[in-house]
Amino acid sequence: MKEIISSTTNPKVKELVRLRQSPRRRRALGLFVAEGVTEVDALFRSGRKVREIYCCESFAESAQGSEFLESRNEDDCLALKLGSEAFAKASYQNSSDGVLAIVESWSLDLPAVPQSPRLALVLDEIEKPGNLGAILRTAEAFGVSNLLLSEPVLDFFNPNVVRSSRGLMASLRVNAGTKNEVYSWLEKEELRVVGTSSKSSKPYWDLGLGKGTAFVLGSEKEGLGEFWKERIREWACIPMEGDASSLNLNASAACLLAEFNRSVA
Question: Alpha helix locations (H) across the chain?
Fold first, then answer.
């Protein structure tokens, strides 16, 4: 490992900040920033290309840090130490465990070959990175085969997606496209497409779910718009007893995915 970078104006520190802050920069370079041992390790384990690792000096010299760096010695990855001020400048977490990485992004194009998914989840016009990251963790936990982003408002490689997903965004099949592209893909795969609506009288546990199902969830603000309302033929509700008018997207996804797994067990 080379000498410590201590200046907050060092070009590498400045680049970390730019990649953290700018979706345009991330798209132009095909790179994004991940922070945290768990997150970076998940990216390695998923086979993603980690170009550079930056370690806070105190972490790099700790037993945990030495073990982590030693385990990555075989990878073609530049490892650099940052002084405390330089690391604080580059970091995007209030309390960090001392690891940052620059990672190559990957294509989100819809697959051209048949996938025959067991379970697909469509998120239409999702706009909050933290919500998407949480849903990615939930989707991974429940065994979602394909997660599709229909005209997402956010940048998939936003640092908050990486953080909220704990790096699991790298191990899922995630693709993005226009509404028409996503719907056409669902049709080609001959999936049973289910939407959720508070106006439906059918509870989601009465769906009789089986393999080859796709759930479609709408945006945080508006829910599902006319495009999906005109095309989805099967709807279900998530009954609620309290005063809340709706659930968080992640909570809604968890209800549906858990019921799917119960039904097909």
Answer: 11-21, 23-29, 37-45, 57-60, 63-71, 84-90, 129-142, 159-165, 179-188, 226-231, 249-264
